[in-house]
C-alpha cells in the first residue's frame, strides 16, 4: 500500500480510535469520495496481501471495479455488501457505507473486509461441536447444561432434567429461562454473576437449595463456553455437596464445642507447622505460659524455652509426656501434660505439621509428690518397725536369759548358797535389768522424737548447765558401763562455762557417742572428749581408735537401726547414732562423721547455744 495513516500525525481518526481498530480481527479502511485510501488497519493490509497478493491497488475502484456503479447507492446512505471473486482460496465479504467521520473534511466510505469462507466454516462446525458437547455432558453424573448468552438452555443431560424439574416444577426447554422466573433480587444476582462469566471468568458458588421441603447444598460452577475466540454462552453444573457440607458444619460445630470445652477445662491448644517461625496457640495456653499480652502466636524458640519438648518427639506420629515448664518471667515452674499428633508429613515421610493439647497438672504433680513422700515414709516406718522387732528379739534376749538363769539358780539354792555367790547372781540380775532399761530408754526416746512432724516435735527444756560437771558425770557412767576397759580423757574448754542446754538430750547424745566408742574400740585404747566454745557455738569432738565406718556406708550412718557391715559380730541396736542426731538437731545443731587415719573415727558436733550470763535478761530466775 502507498499509505497507512499514522495516528500521531494529522489524521482523520483520533489516536485512541486508531489503536482500537488495530485490535480488531477484521479489516477496516476509509476511502474519500474519490475512492482514495485515507486509513486502514493492520487486518486490512493482511487481508489484501492474502487476497490480491498486490497491496499497491489502494483505490476503491482498483480494489473493486464496479465501484462507480454503486456510488449513487452509497451516496443515498445505503450500505452495500458483496462477496469478492474467489482468489487464493479466499472469498472475502466487502461492506461499503458512506459515513460522517470526525476530523474529516467530508463524508467518507467506511469499508470492512471479512473472510466469508472462515465464517461459513465456523458455522458449519457448530452442529458437530454441539453433538460432541451433548455426548460429553450426558456422561457426567452431575446436572450440567449449556446455556446461551440470553439464559436459555440449549443442551442438557438427564441429571439436569431431574434437577430442573424438582427445583422449578417443570422440565427444561429451549424457550424457558430459569433466571427470568427468579425473584428480583436473585435474578439481579445471577445476571451480574453470569455477565462476568460471559466476559471470560469462571465462577463457583455454594448455595442452599430447598427441594420438596428438604434442604440441600449445591456447588454451582459457571464456566464460559468458547468456540475459537467466541464465547457462545456458559456451562452450568450443579454438584450435590449436602453430605460434605453437613460434615463441614458438624466439624465446625465440633471445633466450636472443643474450643468451648478447652475454655471451660482450661486446656491449652497449639498448632505448629514447621515451615513457620511461629506457633499458633489459644488463649488458655497463652494464660498458662504467663504471656502478658495473651498473644495467640508465639516464637518457636520461645515456646520450646517455656515448654522444653525434646526434638526427638517430633519424629514420631504422636507423643504424650509430663514435664516441668517455665510459665513466666518470674521463674515460676509448673508441670504440664502435653500431647501431640502429627497432621502432615513432607515428601520424605517426615512429620511437618503438629497439633496438640496442654494441660496444667501442677496440683496433681504436687499431690503425686506428697503421695510418693508418704509412701516412702511408710516404707521407712515399716523398715524401722521390722528392724525394731528384730532388735528387741535379739537384744532383749540376752539380759532376759541372764535374769532367768540367775533367778533359777537362786530358786534352786535357797538357803544353801553362800553369801558371795548369792550377791554375784543378784549383780547379774541388776546388770541385766539396767541393760533392759537402757534399751527401753533408747526406744522410747527415738519414738518420742521421730514419730511426730517437726512442727509438733518436743520443745526444748533449757536449763543452765555446767559443761565441766555434765561431762564428768557422763565420763563416770561410761566408765562404769564399760568396766574401766578404756582410757577416757576430757578436754573441756571453757571449764567454768555455764550453758543453757536441754540436759536430757545432751546427756543422751554424749553418752551414746562415748558408749559407742567404748563398744567398737579395742580394750585399753584411748577415747577423747573435747569441747571448744567459739562465737556462740559449742564444738564437741569425740575421738576413738575403733573400727571406723566403710566409705560406702557412711551416708546411712545416722539412720535408725543401721549397723555397719564390719560390726555385725558385735551386739548393738543401731539406735545410738540416730538418737544423737535427733538430740543435736532439736538444739538446732549438726553432727558430722570423719574417719581418722590410720584407724578410728571422729564425731564432731556444732551446737548453737549461749552462756548463762548472756541470757540472764532473756530467761528470768523463775523460768
From TrEMBL:
Keyword Kinase among UniProt keywords: yes
Alphabetized Gene3D superfamilies for the sequence: 1.10.287.130, Histidine kinase-like ATPase, C-terminal domain, PAS domain
Pfam family, one: HisKA
Keywords linked to the UniProt accession: Kinase, Phosphoprotein, Transferase, Two-component regulatory system
PROSITE patterns: HIS_KIN
Enzyme Commission number(s) of this protein: 2.7.13.3
Gene Ontology MF, one: phosphorelay sensor kinase activity
InterPro entries in alphabetical order: HATPase_C_sf, HATPase_dom, His_kinase_dom, HisK_dim/P_dom, HisK_dim/P_sf, PAS-like_dom_sf, Sensor_HK_Regulatory, Sig_transdc_His_kin-like_C
Keyword Phosphoprotein assigned: yes
Boundaries of every Histidine kinase domain copy: 391-611
Broad enzyme group: transferase
Reactions catalysed, as given in the entry: ATP + protein L-histidine = ADP + protein N-phospho-L-histidine
Name of protein: histidine kinase
UniProt source species: bacterium (Candidatus Blackallbacteria) CG17_big_fil_post_rev_8_21_14_2_50_48_46
Amino acid at each position: 500500500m502507498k499509505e497507512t495513516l499514522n495516528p500521531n500525525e494529522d489524521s482523520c481518526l483520533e489516536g485512541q480510535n486508531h489503536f482500537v481498530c488495530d485490535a480488531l480481527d477484521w479489516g477496516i479502511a476509509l476511502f474519500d469520495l474519490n475512492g482514495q485510501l485515507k486509513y486502514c488497519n493492520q487486518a486490512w493490509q493482511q487481508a489484501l496481501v492474502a487476497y490480491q497478493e498486490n497491496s499497491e491497488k489502494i483505490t476503491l475502484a482498483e480494489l473493486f471495479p464496479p465501484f462507480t456503479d454503486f456510488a449513487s447507492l452509497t451516496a443515498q446512505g445505503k450500505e452495500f455488501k458483496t462477496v469478492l471473486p474467489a482468489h487464493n482460496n479466499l472469498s472475502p465479504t466487502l461492506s461499503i457505507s458512506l459515513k460522517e467521520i470526525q476530523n474529516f473534511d467530508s463524508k467518507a466510505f467506511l469499508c470492512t473486509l471479512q473472510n466469508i469462507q472462515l465464517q461459513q466454516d465456523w458455522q458449519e462446525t457448530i452442529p458437530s461441536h454441539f453433538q460432541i458437547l451433548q455426548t460429553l455432558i450426558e456422561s457426567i453424573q452431575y446436572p450440567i447444561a449449556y446455556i446461551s448468552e440470553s439464559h436459555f438452555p440449549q443442551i442438557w443431560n438427564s441429571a439436569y432434567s431431574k434437577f430442573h424439574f424438582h427445583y422449578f416444577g417443570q422440565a427444561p426447554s429451549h424457550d424457558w429461562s430459569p433466571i427470568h422466573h427468579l425473584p428480583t433480587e436473585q435474578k439481579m444476582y445471577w445476571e451480574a454473576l453470569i455477565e462476568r462469566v460471559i466476559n471470560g471468568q469462571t465462577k463457583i458458588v455454594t448455595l442452599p437449595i430447598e427441594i420438596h421441603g428438604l434442604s440441600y447444598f449445591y456447588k454451582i460452577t459457571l464456566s464460559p463456553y468458547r468456540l475459537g475466540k467466541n464465547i457462545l454462552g456458559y456451562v452450568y453444573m450443579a454438584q450435590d455437596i449436602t453430605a460434605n457440607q453437613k460434615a463441614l458444619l458438624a466439624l465446625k460445630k465440633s471445633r466450636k464445642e472443643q474450643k468451648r470445652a478447652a475454655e471451660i477445662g482450661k486446656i491449652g491448644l497449639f498448632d505448629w507447622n514447621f515451615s513457620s517461625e511461629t506457633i499458633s496457640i489459644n488463649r488458655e495456653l497463652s494464660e498458662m505460659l504467663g504471656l502478658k499480652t495473651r498473644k495467640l502466636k508465639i516464637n518457636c524458640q520461645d515456646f520450646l524455652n517455656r515448654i522444653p519438648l525434646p526434638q526427638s518427639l517430633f519424629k514420631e506420629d504422636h507423643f504424650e509426656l509430663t514435664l516441668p515448664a517455665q510459665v513466666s518471667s518470674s521463674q515460676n515452674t509448673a508441670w504440664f501434660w502435653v500431647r501431640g499428633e502429627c497432621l502432615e508429613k513432607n515428601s520424605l515421610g517426615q512429620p511437618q505439621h503438629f497439633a496438640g493439647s496442654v494441660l496444667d497438672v501442677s496440683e496433681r504433680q504436687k499431690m503425686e509428690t506428697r503421695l510418693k513422700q508418704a509412701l516412702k515414709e511408710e516404707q521407712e516406718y515399716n523398715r524401722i518397725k521390722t528392724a525394731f522387732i528384730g532388735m528387741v528379739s535379739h537384744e532383749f534376749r540376752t539380759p532376759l536369759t541372764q535374769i532367768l538363769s540367775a533367778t533359777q539358780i537362786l530358786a534352786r539354792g535357797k538357803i544353801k548358797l553362800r553369801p558371795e555367790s548369792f550377791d554375784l547372781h543378784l549383780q547379774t540380775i541388776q546388770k541385766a535389768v539396767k541393760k533392759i532399761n537402757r534399751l527401753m530408754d533408747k526406744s522410747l526416746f527415738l519414738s518420742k522424737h521421730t514419730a511426730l512432724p517437726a512442727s509438733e516435735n518436743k520443745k526444748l527444756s533449757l536449763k543452765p548447765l555446767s559443761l565441766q560437771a555434765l561431762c564428768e558425770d557422763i565420763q563416770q557412767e561410761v566408765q562404769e558401763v564399760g568396766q574401766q576397759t578404756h582410757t577416757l580423757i576430757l578436754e573441756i574448754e571453757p571449764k567454768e562455762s555455764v550453758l543453757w542446754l536441754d540436759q536430757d538430750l545432751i546427756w543422751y547424745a554424749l553418752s551414746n557417742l562415748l558408749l559407742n566408742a567404748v563398744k567398737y574400740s579395742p580394750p585399753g585404747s584411748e577415747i577423747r572428749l573435747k569441747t571448744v566454745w567459739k562465737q556462740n557455738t559449742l564444738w564437741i569432738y569425740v575421738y576413738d581408735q575403733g573400727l571406723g565406718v566403710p566409705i560406702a556406708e557412711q551416708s546411712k550412718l545416722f539412720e535408725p537401726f543401721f549397723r555397719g557391715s564390719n560390726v555385725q559380730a558385735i551386739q548393738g541396736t543401731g539406735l545410738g547414732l540416730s538418737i544423737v542426731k535427733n538430740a543435736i538437731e532439736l538444739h538446732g545443731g549438726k553432727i558430722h562423721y570423719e574417719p581418722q587415719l590410720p584407724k578410728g573415727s571422729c564425731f564432731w558436733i556444732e551446737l548453737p547455744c549461749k552462756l548463762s550470763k548472756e541470757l540472764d535478761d532473756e530467761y528470768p530466775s523463775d523460768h
